[in-house]
Amino acid sequence: MVKVEFLGPISNEALNIDISNLSELSAILQKNENVSSWLETCAVAINDTMVSSKDHVLKDGDRISLLPPVCGG
Amino acid sequence: MNNTNALQLIDGDLPVQNITNTWYEEFQNSNYGAIITFVGIVRDENNIEGLSFDIYEPILTSWFNTWQEKAKKQNALVLMAHSRGDVPNHKSSYIAAVCSPKRRVALELIDEFVEDFKKSAPIWKYDLLEGKRVYAKDRSTKIKGAGILN
Fold first, then answer.
1. ipTM (interface predicted TM)
2. Which residue among A9, A26, A67 places its CB closest to the CB of B56?
3. N or C of chain B: less Cβ packing under 10 Å?
4. How many angstroms separate the CA of residue B30 from the nearest CA in chain A?
5. Is B141 in contact with B66 (CB distance < 8 Å)?
6. Is the pLDDT of residue B2 over 60?
7. E strand or H helix at A63, and its extent?
C-alpha cells in the first residue's frame, strides 16, 4: 500500500492504494476527474525526493506527492 | 547559524525590519564584505486584496539546503524568509539574502537564488479576491520534470 497526496491547489483527498509502480498510478489518476487535468503539469516526489521518470519501483509504505506549478514570492 | 534558522517560514506578512536587522546584527562581524537583501512586496493590482500561500516544507527545506551547500562552496551564505497563509497588499511575503566575502559572488548568487526559487520552490500562490483564494495558475511555473504521470 502506498499513499498519494495532492499538494497546493489540487482539491483531492489523499489516496491509499495498492500499486507497484508509477505507470499504474498514472492509469488510476487519469480516470480521476479532480486530478486528470493536473497530470500534464504536475511534478512527482516519492518520500519527498523528486523523481524524473515513471521507471520507479514502489514499495509498501511509500508516500507519493503530486506538485502542481509553483509561484513563490 | 544553522539551516533551520537560515530558512524562516512565518504565518502572515513578514516583519521585514525585524528579520533583516537580525540578519545584519548576526553577520556584520563575520567578515562578509557584502550582504544583499531582496524584499518582495505584494503589489496592489488586478483588484486583489492580497496574496495567500501554501508551502510544502519537506521539499522546500531540501531545496534550500542544496542552495546552502552551493553557497558554502563560494564561502557565502543564503538566508530566506517566506509567508504562509494570507499577506495583504503592500506587505512583504518573501525575503532572500546572500552574505558573501566577495561582492561579485553575492550579486550573482542572489540573482540565481531568487530565480531558481521562483521556478522550483514548492510554494503555491493564490490571489485574494473578495475574500476567496484563487490559484494564480497563469503566473505559476511547472517544476522541472513535470508531466511524468501524464
1. 0.94
2. A67
3. N
4. 28
5. no
6. no
7. strand A63-67
Q: What is the Cα–Cα distance from A1 to A13, expressed in whole angstroms?
A: 16
Instruction: Indicate the pLDDT class of residue B21, thresholds 50, 70 and 90.
Output: very high
Handedness of CA B113, B115, B120, B123 (dihedral sign): positive
pLDDT band, very low/low/confident/very high, at B137 (cuts 50, 70, 90)? very high
Can you give the pTM of this predicted structure? 0.94
CB-nearest to B122 from A7, A49, A73 is A7
E strand segments, B49-141: 50-55, 77-88, 92-100, 123-129, 132-135
Alpha carbon distance A54, B62 (integer Å): 22
Binding-site residues on chain A for chain B (CB distance < 8 A): 7-9, 22, 25-26, 29, 39-45, 48-54, 65-73
Of B114, B122, B135, nearest to A9 by CB-CB distance is B135
Residue B23 parent element (H or E): helix B16-27
Q: Is residue B133 within 8 Å of residue B126, measured between CB atoms?
A: yes
Determine the Cα–Cα distance for residues B148 and B129; give it in Å rounded to an integer. 33
> Are B146 and A42 in contact (CB < 8 Å)?
yes
Query: To the nearest whole angstrom, how far is the Cα of B83 from the nearest Cα of chain A?
Result: 8
Residue of chain A whose alpha carbon sits nearest to that of B114: A73
Per-residue confidence of chain A (73 residues) as pLDDT tens digits?
Answer: 999 999 999 989 999 999 999 999 999 999 999 999 999 999 999 999 999 998 888 999 999 999 999 999 9
